[in-house]
From TrEMBL:
The keyword Methyltransferase applies. InterPro entries: Ade_MeTrfase_dom_2, MeTrfase_D12, SAM-dependent_MTases_sf. Belongs to the N(4)/N(6)-methyltransferase family. GO terms for molecular function: S-adenosyl-L-methionine binding; sequence-specific DNA binding; site-specific DNA-methyltransferase (adenine-specific) activity. Pfam families: MethyltransfD12 (PF02086). It is an enzyme of class 2 (transferase). GO terms for biological process: DNA restriction-modification system; methylation; mismatch repair. This is site-specific DNA-methyltransferase (adenine-specific). Its EC number is 2.1.1.72.
């Protein structure tokens, strides 16, 4: 520890860094525990964690109706022991709130991530950010420069002009870096995160994005995605290894607006069975989300794993005035196989 004293002052001046280093050494010597003062530091970069280096925690790239950002805290008690987890698989990506949680809190345990969605525009966005982040940001800034309007009407008119421009691109051009930046701009200014399509391309109404674009977050996503396998297809094609945390958030039974294909009750049954099959085969942990419609649908399905059905009630802040703002989310957690199949009540 270094202490300096000015000749004409009685005030001591401490070398704070040296003081903290000395304090750490004393505690380490007493407790023989090198990690006793360890805290998450997103700006520490070493050879060991270079590939995972980010400047701040990831947040979803866009708003998404049905996204799980507000529910993550309620999910945490039911998540697996990540000391045993080496892989993460998310067959219905949406906006990836759970991926953000796993990467932010547990990435030191994860070797790779498998991110999948049936929406080709979303998957192309992820691949573009992964492979050409700087080019993507340049194109996005160019669009922002074009959107110089100060009034809400001006911004609204620009949104619809850009939407028409995007929808008029030649087939395949929507997957260029420029086309992807156009899509992302539209995605970040769409009405209440309610994604909809017409003829295979985004067709959502306007709602201004008051926060602008977080370029630092986009760059951090590019870093995080370097360890991700990104695919576009059926959830059934997602590879699940041993020691995988499998998180499934399919379209809810009462909602088809955000999904480009139907997902009926028979498909929900198949998805329910598929999650259990993967949990049984790989002896790992699976989570399946849906809305509890109080009709006993999921409780009537055969359960061949150790399972738990949890009702999570939360307030929908964007519900219309006079509507019932309370929503009951059903979280189903599946663990290693039980000896005898049982039926679990919701």
């Amino acid at each position: 520890m270094t202490v300096s004293k000015k000749s004409k002052s009685n005030i001591l001046h401490l070398d704070i860094d040296a003081f903290i280093a000395k304090a750490r050494n004393i505690i380490h010597e007493v407790y023989h525990n090198k990690a006793i003062l360890s805290v998450p530091d997103y700006q520490t970069k070493t050879a060991a964690n270079d590939q995972d280096y980010i400047t701040k925690p990831l947040t979803p790239l866009y708003a998404w109706a049905g996204g799980k950002r507000r529910l993550i805290k309620a999910y945490r008690p039911y998540m697996p022991d990540f000391k045993r987890i080496r892989y993460y698989a998310e067959p219905f990506f949406g906006a990836g709130a759970m991926f953000c949680e796993v990467f932010n809190q547990h990435r030191e345990h994860i070797r790779s991530y498998h991110l999948n969605d049936i929406n080709p525009e979303i998957i192309n966005l992820l691949n573009t950010i992964k492979r050409d982040c700087s080019g993507f940001i340049d194109e996005l800034k160019t669009i922002e420069e074009r959107n110089h309007y100060k009034t809400l009407d001006g911004k609204k008119n620009f949104y619809y002009r850009l939407r028409e421009e995007y929808r008029s691109l030649p087939a395949g051009a929507e997957y260029s870096v420029r086309g992807t930046a156009m899509f992302y701009f539209l995605l970040n200014n769409m009405f209440r995160g309610l994604y909809s399509q017409k003829n295979g391309r985004i067709f959502t109404s306007f709602q201004t994005n008051k926060n602008g674009f977080d370029y630092e977050n986009i760059k951090n996503w590019s870093t995080a995605l370097q360890k991700a396998v990104i695919t576009c297809g059926s959830y059934e094609d997602v590879k699940v290894n041993k020691n995988t945390f499998l998180f499934c958030d399919p379209p809810y039974r009462d909602c088809s607006i955000m999904y480009s294909t139907d997902f009926n009750d028979e498909q929900h049954k198949q998805c329910y069975a598929w999650v259990q099959k993967k949990v049984e085969e790989k002896k790992t942990v699976g989570m399946l989300c849906n809305k509890n419609l109080n009709d006993g649908f999921f409780s009537s399905l055969p359960t061949t794993t150790e399972s738990e059905h949890i009702n999570i009630e939360y307030s929908h802040t964007k519900a219309r005035v006079g509507a019932n703002r309370s929503i009951v989310e059903l979280l189903m957690v599946f663990k290693e196989k039980m000896a005898v199949p049982v039926l679990k009540a919701a």
